[in-house]
Design a protein that fits this description.
The protein is an alpha/beta fold. It has two domains: 34-113 and 219-253, Periplasmic binding protein-like II (D-Maltodextrin-Binding Protein, domain 2, 3-Layer(aba) Sandwich); 116-210, Periplasmic binding protein-like II (D-Maltodextrin-Binding Protein, domain 2, 3-Layer(aba) Sandwich), CATH 3.40.190. Helices cover 41% and strands 20% of the residues. It contains eleven helices and ten strands. The chain has helices spanning 11-32, 45-59, 70-78, 92-99, 132-135, 150-162, 165-168, 178-186, 197-200, 233-241, 245-253, and strands at 35-41, 62-68, 85-87, 109-114, 116-120, 141-144, 172-175, 192-196, 207-210, 219-225. The strands form two sheets. Strands 2-1-3-10-4 form a five-stranded mixed sheet. It has a five-stranded mixed sheet with strand order 7-6-8-5-9, sandwiched between helices. β1, α2 and β2 (62-68) form a beta-alpha-beta unit. The longest helix is centred in the N-terminal third of the chain and has 22 residues, at 11-32.
Length: 258
């Protein structure tokens, strides 16, 4: 009777086989991996980078992030810019994109609710109620373009409710995005400015007034899958991951609500 002995391998051969198996698995994952291009509202820069890194590690996909004002991105998308996903600082642009056939219907949702802050590098300039705006004890006030950036529009509405808008208009230093408004203050080109709370909430050296949410319309930030990304699995995967507990923990860490 023929007896077949179990095949035995040396440790070296077994290790080689294991390495080959892992290599094939890695090659398969690499072949399946995709890339996507995400247009991100400037206020969401830091959390988007953290979330993209988590998603890339989990999925193997590559996420290319671009940052700017929501209004500028919409204009680019309307003229054919090949972004797969829009993370806007408002709901208006994603809704417009849907109506114009620039986005995939049914994919739009709110990923964060932003918070506005008045910030200065001077630890003694901004008080707890923002009354520095009424005193006028500054030469320049940074603000994002309200036509392009929802945070800029929220700042205008805040100053209108405070009754100081007409008095401080002449002191505006206007940036194309909330990131540029932040840079004006950070570099000293403006003594204070309206920024996203997420940009400055961990700054221990300056002074901050977190604007009460009732002083301006809610900054509802929505995401939507754009038509170039309709068949892009990486884009769809990123949008789904943005709703995950891991992504939401990052969003909360940067001071956003839902």
């Amino acid at each position: 009777m023929l007896t077949i002995e179990p095949m035995r391998f040396s440790r070296r051969v077994a290790a080689a086989i294991l390495g080959l198996t892992l290599g094939i698995t890695a090659m398969t994952r690499a072949a399946d991996a995709e890339s996507c291009k995400i247009a991100v509202a400037a206020n969401f820069t830091a959390p988007a980078r953290d979330i993209a890194a988590l998603y890339e590690k989990q999925s193997g996909d590559t996420v290319q992030l671009s940052f700017g004002a929501s209004g500028q991105f919409y204009a680019l998308i309307a003229h054919g810019a090949p972004y797969d996903v829009l993370l806007s600082a408002d709901s208006d642009r994603p809704i417009q994109a849907e109506k114009a056939g620039l986005a995939v219907a049914g994919t739009r949702y709110t990923y964060a609710v932003g918070k506005l802050a008045l910030w200065s590098r001077d630890p003694n300039l901004v008080d707890d109620d923002g009354t520095v705006l009424a005193t006028g004890n500054f030469k320049h006030l940074a603000i994002a373009d309200p036509k392009l950036a929802p945070y800029g529009a929220a700042a205008i509405e805040t100053m209108r409710k405070m009754g100081v808008l007409d008095d401080v208009k002449a002191k505006f230093v206007t940036g194309s995005s909330i990131s540029q408004a932040y840079q004006f203050v950070k570099t000293g080109n403006a003594e204070l400015g309206f920024v996203a709370l997420s940009q400055v909430m961990n700054d221990k050296s300056g002074s901050i007034w977190t604007v009460p949410e009732w002083m301006h319309p809610p900054i509802v930030q929505q995401a939507v899958l754009l038509t170039p990304g309709a068949n892009n699995q990486a884009a769809k995967g990123f949008l789904a991951f943005l709703k995950s507990d891991a992504a939401r923990a990052v969003i909360l860490k940067y001071g956003y609500g839902f």
